[in-house]
Amino acid sequence: MTTYPSHQVVYECDQHIANSMLKHKENVHHTMKNAMNRKVRVQTVDHEVIEGIVVGVDTKYVYLNIDPGSTRGFYPGYPPPRPPFHPGYPPPRPPYPGFNPILPLALFNLLTISLLW
Prior knowledge:
alpha+beta; SH3 type barrels; 5 strands
């Protein structure tokens, strides 16, 4: 570990591991670019399994269009601010029917990628 005048480094990733992670990210990036507009099932390093359609890929993230009933995901501006719920009135409904949430996933977090169609 290196000590600097104003602070001390408490963790430094091993260079071999860092290089392996970079190679993994590049491989996943290439794979996901080839899976654009296809339905996939991915498993993350945290053992989470997510299904969705690949709608975008950049150098850090893959963007999956997931089922609107899913508890994961977001997209800009949703949910919009809602008026408070008043007893006797039905709860407000989502304003964008058919608009599925987009979930960004970090490329280095993906372990398994399966094409579903």
